[in-house]
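Re: that backbone. Tokens:
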């Protein structure tokens, strides 16, 4: 898409640092330079106001990545593009069949109602819950990793969705302040929400998580 739009050597492209390194790699492959902007904390997608502040005369495009099945709020990003004459591209996730999405939403709603001490996902418009990502608040430091180890020890699979933000990777290292990105990297954890999970599976997830309340502060 970037190459077809004429983006190339000397151009800058604003991208998120929270998530796929492939987006920054695609920018580099056409000869342009990735510029990292911070995310909005409930959607984990680019924040329109921060994107606008990151623009320079060399900025040619913005690549918005929809994250975890939660679409980005495109209105402010398109407004930035229109004001500044920039190309705004969307990088989506693979579509999920309707029936599977409905079952995931049902399981997500169950977790929303039962989990304690965790910040559950923002439902938002059109969330398909390709991943059910919670926040594990820390007591002045991240408790997410300790929480994940304890949950796994109770037989519940979970995964850290983003271990290292792209702007901290050696090939793309930049000295830039992205506080929401850094916080999300430290706090997020993906819990199971697959359509095949049974009621007993869901109860096990809730029991494992809620038994660890001592690790956590109240959700903010």
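Recovered sequence:
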């Amino acid at each position: 898409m970037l190459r077809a739009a004429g983006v190339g050597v000397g151009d800058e492209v604003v991208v998120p640092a929270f998530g796929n390194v492939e987006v920054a790699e695609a920018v580099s492959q056409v000869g342009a330079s990735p510029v990292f902007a911070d995310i909005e904390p409930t959607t984990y997608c680019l924040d329109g106001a921060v994107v606008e502040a990151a623009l320079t005369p060399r900025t040619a495009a913005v690549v918005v990545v929809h994250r975890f099945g939660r679409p980005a709020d495109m209105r402010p990003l398109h407004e930035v593009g229109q004001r500044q004459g920039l190309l705004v591209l969307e990088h989506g996730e693979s579509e999920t069949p309707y029936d599977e999405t409905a079952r995931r939403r049902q399981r997500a709603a169950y977790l929303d109602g039962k989990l304690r001490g965790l910040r559950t996902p923002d439902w938002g418009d059109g969330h398909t819950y390709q991943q059910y990502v919670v926040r594990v608040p820390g007591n002045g430091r991240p408790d997410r990793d300790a929480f994940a180890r304890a949950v796994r020890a109770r037989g519940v699979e979970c995964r850290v969705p983003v271990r290292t933000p792209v702007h901290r990777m050696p090939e793309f290292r930049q000295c830039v302040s992205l506080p929401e990105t850094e916080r999300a990297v430290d706090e997020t954890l993906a819990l199971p929400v697959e359509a095949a999970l049974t009621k007993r599976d869901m109860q096990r997830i809730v029991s494992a998580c809620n038994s660890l309340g001592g690790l956590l502060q109240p959700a903010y």
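Confidence is low (pLDDT under 50) at residues 216-220. DSSP finds seven helices and six strands in the chain.
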